[in-house]
Structures are given as C-alpha cells and as structure tokens.
Amino acid sequence: MSFLRSAPWLAGLGFILGLAGYAFYQGKGWSYLSNDPRACVNCHIMRDQYESWQHSSHRNWATCNDCHMPHTFLGKWTTKAVSGLRHSVAFTTGRFPEPIVITPWNKAIALDNCVACHRPVVEQMLLRPGVHGPEDLNCTACHGNVGHRALK
Amino acid sequence: MEIGELEVDPAVWGQNFPLHYDRFLRTREEYGRTAYGGGVRYDKLAEKPFLKLAWAGHPFSVDYKEDRGHHYAQLDQYQTKRTTEFKQPGACLNCHTGEFVKLVAEIGWDTLNRTPYNEFRERLAAGGHLGVTCADCHDPKTMALRITRPALENALKAQGKDWRQASRQEMRSLVCAQCHVEYYFLGEGKTLTFPWSRGTSVEAIEAHYDAYGFKDWTHAITQAPMIKMQHPEYELYTTSVHHQAGVACADCHMPYIRVGGMKISDHWIRSPLTQVAQSCQTCHRVPEAELLNRVKTIQDRTKELATTTEKALEDAILAIQKAMEAGVPDEALEEARKLHRAAQLRWDFVDAENSMGFHSPQEAARILLHATDLARQAQLAAERALAKR
Fold first, then answer.
1. Chain B interface includes A126 (CB < 8 A)
2. CA distance B253 to B270
3. How much is the pLDDT for B1?
4. Is the C-alpha dihedral spanning B10, B11, B13, B18 positive or negative?
5. Which one has a higher pLDDT value, B121 or A136?
C-alpha cells in the first residue's frame, strides 16, 4: 500500500530529475565548472566575443575567467553562480540587450583583473588610489579592444 | 624623501618622481607651432590686426602673444606689456607663479589679490622662471590630485559642489580648471572670481556679468561697456561629446606614455596634435593622417565662422563710430552698444579659448552664429540711430 501511495511522487521526482539531468547534459552543465573558454560559447550569444578573443592580444595569456572572474576562491564561485543564474534567466526569457552589455559589477571585476596582472606597469598611475572617492580608473575606456571586441 | 607642505621647487619633488619630473622639465621646450596654436611666443596682434580694433582701449590691444609651455607661466606674464605698461593686481599671480601656494601661506589670499602686481616684481625675479609647479595640482604627502586655487573652490561651492567629492577622472579636468577658465577681479579687493553663479555656458556667464552690471573696460571707439573673455577652455569643453564620454583634459593633454617598464601620465603638457598616437589613437583606431585631417576640418570651419563674425563686428564698431562722429546722442546709441558688448563677448569666448573650436565644435559654431547675428543687429541699430537724427 505504501508503495501505491508513494508511486506518483516517485514518478514525479523521477521525471524532474530526468528533466534536470537532460538539461544538464544538453546544456553541458559540467563545462561551467571548468576554465575552458569554450564553455562560454555553449551559448551562441557569446560567439562574437569568443571569436574576437581568439584574435586578441590576450589569447595566449588570459582566458575568459582570468579577466571576468575574481581571482579568489570564494569570489570566483560566487560570481559564477550569480552570473550563471542571471544568464540562464536572461537567455531563456530573451530579455537582454544585444550585443550583450557587461554589468557594472562584472566590469569592476574585469578592471580589478587588468590591474592584478599589469600592476608593475601601471603602478605610477595608481598612486594612492581612492583618495578622492571612488576609484574610477577605467582601463577599458581606451583599451576596449584588448580583451575582445566583436568582429565586424 | 619627505616633501614639505609648502615645497614649490619641482626639482625637490623630482627626487621622488624622476620619471614625471623629467617629462615636466620639457614644458620649457618651444616645440613649434600647430595650425592655430603651439608652443612659440608669436605675436597674435600682428597676425590679426582686427584684434586691435576689437579690444581698443584694453591692454590686450597693446600686447597679445601666444603663450608657451607651463614652464613660462610666470615669465611670459612678467614680460608682457600688459603688466609692464599697465597696472595689474596681484590677483594675476593666482595662475602666473609657482610660488602661489607659498605666497598665500605667507600673506593670505586676500592680500595677494589686492596688492599691485608690480610690488611682487623683485620677489618674482628672485624666484627665476618658476612657472606651474607640482604643488599646484598635487598633495605633497599622498601625491593625490588637489585643488589649491580658492577661486575654483569658491565657484564650485557656489554651485553646491565640493572637489573633495569629485572622482579621479573629474579631478583630471578640475586641476586644469584652476586656471584654464574665464575669470574676473571682483570689487576693490580684486578677488579672483569665476562668473559661474548661473552656470558655465556663455549665456550663463553673460547673465552673471549683466547682473553685476560689470565691465572689464570701456571700448575706446564705441564707448560700450565690454567684457574681455579669457581662455574659457574648461567651460567650452564641458559642452562637448568628449566630455560626455568621460574623457578628461589630461587624457589628451597628458596622455599615458610608456617610460621604460612604467606607464605614467605625460607631464610634458602640450597640444595633442604633437602626439596623436598617444592622445587620440588609444581610443580612435584610425590612421594618424585621418585624425589630423578631422581636427583640421573642425578648426578650419571654426576659423571661417570666426572670420565672418569678425567682419560683422568690425562693421558694427565702425557704424557706431560713424554715428558718434555725426553727433548721434548717447541715449540713441545705447541699444547698439549693448549689442556690441553681447556680440563681442561671444566672439571672444571662442577666440580666447585655446582650441579653435575643437574642444566643442558645435557649441563654438552656435556661439559664433549668435555673435554674428548680434553684431549685425548692433550695426543696424547704429545705422538706424544715425538715419533718425
């Protein structure tokens, strides 16, 4: 009897698990746990960025994650979770600008990462940062095509 | 090494910052002329005789030369006939000596403004060439950008702004706005003041002066109460698309350059036309020749507009002169004189601004259009008054 009563539930759970597993498999879910830039082109929205990155000066040195994820363990996985959730909602509902635009939060991460690698070169430009308020040195204002710029 | 709070000698700062100092020293180089400016002390009155007519009765009609680099900020003024043949207040020293910070600490800003310029001559001579120095823009302890000129601080305060809240990028323009702005000496105290109480557009500046009933001088020919505009670079620039895009003065005039393994902002401050690669091409990825051609187009057009305005102004001045010689009474010429003042302060806004329109091409064109219209109206008013007599 208990079997008969739990059967619909088990069937429902099985259906959801199956659906989730299928979505995970079809969406190459495991790839998002890696550092491989190809994970970003799972989504065709990112194709232009990926292709122009392949032609960029940074190709041999920096992957998507090197610039777009914080370099700390907690920061990296939190960002992956938050951005991933946002992307899945945006790309499912279709409510996002095209070409895609970086959020202020993600941009701040990217700018931090410019400095993280280039600090020895830009040290003299960063003298006592933040003394006047928000630190708003904007590398990409001028170097917008360094990481990637969608190919024309 | 520790840099003192009142240290104005760039060489001392240079011991801590040799890369910046090395570039800064080059502001003494007379690097040559650009199409409409440059770093050579050429005579502007000789190149455009109209200026003598426009500024009749004002010291600028006696001596007006292109200014050289920041190194000469004190020297060029020390030598101009505008100070040697005319009485000027110490207020000039707000921007024309590297000793400013020290002088204010010693005698106070009010006394500095009020004291005649010539009473400082010996001291200035003893200091040598001391033009713009590190202390003018930098905090000696933190090297952060700072505002040292009370006139700018006051002008911002009047607008409810505080430079201490400004972003780094805003500061990279505001330090320039300490001097590269329109200004006047207010009242008996000769207090250096920026006419920004109503805003920084040419109309807002005009409204500020009109509210005071202020005049810089009386025109020697038309007897109109005139305003002499002086290099409103900051004001014009803030109307531009570059400014909208967040570009600061320093981005083009002090672009980042590579020195050895370091990037620094170039303290050899000069025309961006002398270093298009660093100044323009970091953002605009097109060939240098194309960019230079773009600038030249803008400047040539502004020049063409300005020349049209000058012809109209000349006609207005001569029409008022003719009416006066025919005995038209002052009351009948009031309208024409008012229009002469309004027209010329607009033209001068663009003429005195150091970029031949480039800092904000559309705004410069708009201002010159109104200047031309007002000048022709002045001419008409004078001719009508003459016909009525």
1. no
2. 6
3. 87
4. positive
5. B121
Give residue A152's pLDDT: 47
* Single-letter amino acid code for the residue at A41: V
- CA A120 to chain centroid, in Å, comes to 26
Q: Is B223 within 8 Å of B337 (Cβ atoms)?
A: yes
Give the one of B142, B166, B264 whose C-beta lies nearest to A124's C-beta.
Answer: B264
Ranges of chain B whose pLDDT falls below 70 = none
DSSP codes, B153-192: HHHHHHTT--GGG--HHHHHHHTGGGTSS--EEETTTTEE
| Count of Cβ atoms closer than 10 Å to residue B343 Cβ | 26
Interface of B with A in 124-143 (CB under 8 A): 139, 142-143
| pTM of this prediction exceeds 0.95 | no
Position of tokens 């498999």? A25
Task: Give me the helices (H) in chain A, please.
Answer: 2-26, 47-54, 64-68, 73-93, 104-122, 139-142
CA A138, B169, B203, B375 dihedral sign is negative
A121 CA to chain B: closest CA distance, Å? 4
Would the pLDDT of A26 be above 90?
Answer: no
CA distance B242 to A111: 22
What tokens does A28 get? 């190459």
Q: Provide the angle, in degrees to the nearest 10, between the axes of the packed helices B361-388 and B330-352.
A: 160
pLDDT of residue B359: 98
Q: Is B218 exposed, middle or buried (0-12, 13-18, 19+ CB in 10 A)?
A: middle
- d(CA A10, nearest CA chain B) in Å: 59
> Is the Cβ of A134 closer than 8 Å to some Cβ of chain B?
yes
Q: How far apart are CA A10 and CA B316, in angstroms?
A: 95
Which pLDDT value is given to residue A131?
52
Q: Which has more confidence, A150 or B224?
A: B224
Q: Which residues pair with B258 in a beta bridge?
A: B263
Largest CA distance in chain B: 76
pLDDT tens, position by position, B23-50: 999 999 999 999 999 999 999 999 999 9
A136/B167 touch (CB, cutoff 8 Å), yes or no = yes
